[in-house]
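Researcher: Next entry in the queue.
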Amino acid sequence: MKKRRHRKSRYAVGAVIILVCAASAVFWFCFHKKPVRISERENGIWLAHRWAENPADEKEIIELSEDLRDSKIKHVFLHSGPLDSLGKINPDKYVNAGEFIFLLKKNNPHILSVQAWIGQIEKKGGGVLDISSSDTRENIIKTCTELMAAGFDGIHVDIEPVLDGDSLFLLLLERIKNEAVGDNLLTCATPKISLGKIFGQTLKILFSVKGLWSEEYYRKVSEKCDFTVAMLYDTRINDSGIYNLFISLEVMKLTKTVSNPVMIGIPSYEEVKPSFNPEIENLASALEAVFIGLKYGDSDKYMGFSIYADWTMEEEEWNLIKEHVKSEKHYE
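Model: Structure for this entry, 332 residues:
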């Protein structure tokens, strides 16, 4: 009985804190909003592995290129891994990537980059990749060099989880840029940013939102990359109002924190799981929240949105995105 009372009390306190934070945010928003143009951005998308490994089908690539063009998607993160436990990728995994890149750009000259998306679950998260190992880091750098030689325009790093303050991850990014990528693009998929101790702890207690990076660490990662892509999905939030507020505040804080531009990752999948409710998190609700946040953030640091992922996109969702980007809408 005491445990039950304690749990109810904890939720009640959390709910009060959420309401206070929400009221404060609404008050602040009302007096600080500004118009934001949402067109003319460089949007992105995560692409399935089959495009890199399977023989190219030009008819399919033409269809994809048209969807990307009409969605103003100019950066493509092509799954090319995953990294194995040693930090290596068998070249057979991306044997047809060069032909895919050629045909995609041939049919859509607006594409600015096709980046090799490499990733793995890190040991700290129960995975096989240990970036604290110098040998593993050396192998990752060599792998990135091989991927660049295969015709990619850059490297997109998606190693999860990376804990806040991990200096070895910063070192890895720096070495990939200097030794493998050079003047080409280095980008990084990142977790959410902390919204402060009180709000952050409340979200953690009520919705199990976790794995947030501090402003200081996010800024350091941003400095190592040409741009970052914040994965603002799998929030575990089951309330549309709280979700809208959370994403808006994330966008506001991210754009005011980063040194280099940031893309905002938005979900197109519909898999119901503890961390994701598609009725709450979807392309429409995410885009609405993103552009509310931009009214109060630094829109100059906002590069665009990035869709996760092409293999879960349906015609209705492509049409939603296309209408969104051609609307030339201003939020005032």
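Model: Residues 1-5, 26-31 have pLDDT under 50 and may be disordered.
Researcher: Noted, moving on.
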